[in-house]
Amino acid sequence: MRISTRISLACFLGLLIGCGGGLRELDPGDPAPHGGEMILLRDDRGVIEVVHKKVTEQPIKAEISFYFYKDPKDNGGKPYGPWDSMPESGYLTIGKNQKIDLVVDDDALVTPSGPALFAKKEIDGQLSINIDGETLVIPLEVR
């Protein structure tokens, strides 16, 4: 196979597969309300703030918190308006099959009290949330 054919095939496969999972970067503007990392969801579904609390004692409550906001353009240009309805439940999947059920805590979904799970501060996995009868799966790569 000629090299130009290989390159064309690789580009075509890259277009088919795509990249970025379900996320797009947020244009830096107003600081995150809780000091976390902001992630824009695809399809203008909104913004998620991922807050990783520094582990100072064990057990830790709400080591990871997820806050859900409207897309600023759907909120009259104002940043960080809360979703009209909060996710009813959710879980975080890390590794191949470690599932962590999240609990509702005021206006966030949080990890339950227990030992620190993310001492390295890297959160790789999938966030699955149930909202209005629909399950959304959001890939996470938070550093």
Account of the protein in words:
The chain is mainly beta and 143 residues long. Helix content is 10%, strand content 38%. The chain has one helix and nine strands; from the N terminus they run H-E-E-E-E-E-E-E-E-E. It has one helix spanning 3-17; strands at residues 23-25, 37-41, 47-52, 64-69, 89-94, 98-105, 108-110, 123-131, 134-142. It has a nine-stranded antiparallel beta sheet, with no helix packed on it.
Mean pLDDT: 75
Number of helices: 1
Major sheet: size, sense and barrel closure? 9 strands, antiparallel
Gyration radius (Cα, Å) is 18 Å
Name the poorly predicted regions: 4-26
Structural class: mainly beta
Number of domains: 1
Order of adjacent strands in the largest pleated sheet: 1-2-3-4-7-6-5-8-9
Percentage of residues in helical conformation? 10-25%
SSE series: HEEEEEEEEE
**How many beta-strand runs?**
9
Distance between the termini: 40 Å
Shape: globular
Give a short synopsis of this structure.
With 143 residues, the protein is mainly beta.
